[in-house]
Amino acid sequence: MINITSKDNSLIKHINKLNKSSKYRKKNNEFVAEGVRICNDAVESNACISSLVICEDIIEKYRDTIGRIEEHCEEVYVVTKPLFKEISETKTPQGVLCVIKALDKPTLFDKIKSGGKFVALDNIQDPSNLGTILRTAEAVGIDGIILSGDCCDIYSPKVVRGSMGAVFRIPFAKVNSIKDFIISHKHITSYASVVHDSADKITEIEFDDSSVLVIGNEGNGAKKETVSACDYLVTIPMNGRAESLNASAAAAILMWEMIK
Length: 260
Description:
Distance between the termini: 49 Å
CATH class of the largest domain: Alpha Beta
Strand order of the largest sheet: 8-7-6-11-9-12-10
CATH architecture of the largest domain: 3-Layer(aba) Sandwich
Order of helices and strands: EHHEHEHEHEEHEHHEHEEEHEH
Shape: elongated
Strand content: 15-25%
Number of domains: 2
CATH topology of the largest domain: Alpha/beta knot
């Protein structure tokens, strides 16, 4: 274990930049996972951990977990409690943090060639929404996630935390355009989630075995060109005076109906 005592240390600066900048994460092909459970999920998912950083006052508390993570990482660093707070993105840090190399996800995962049920996210901007959608997608059994190029960064600390480890396990692909993806995968039936009366009720749809469901931006929904490229339009029927739902709440309902 290597002790770090200064916030001017190059690794401390590196972690802070990874936490704050999507551009920096992409440039360095690394991201940060914080918390005992999430770091343990990274190990169990065979993620490539370049650095483990632990707070000196939790070594005994999490000795077994730290030992397991240590076996799968290149370097282990120990920092003081004030210094750990400098690199933590949580209000009550657990004192365990990993720097992880970007996951080896193919541009298009193989399973999409033979069918399955997928969700395409078109310009989702809130990291908390994206993290929750990933977590829910794994829970209900979605086969994979397709992200448009203008979605928020899947390696954002908020996404990684919110996904509760799903980011390590559920297949995902990044594409420039959901519209182009749909056009180039016409063997998969596409459904766009929209908010208007002319769409079919999601509760009355029988999804094809090979299908992709498009969920759009929190404020504006899916892009018009994306919606136009889809085979069907679906909507969530709502009672009372509610006109719309939070993106992650809507996604949960849509994915459940897709899988059931």
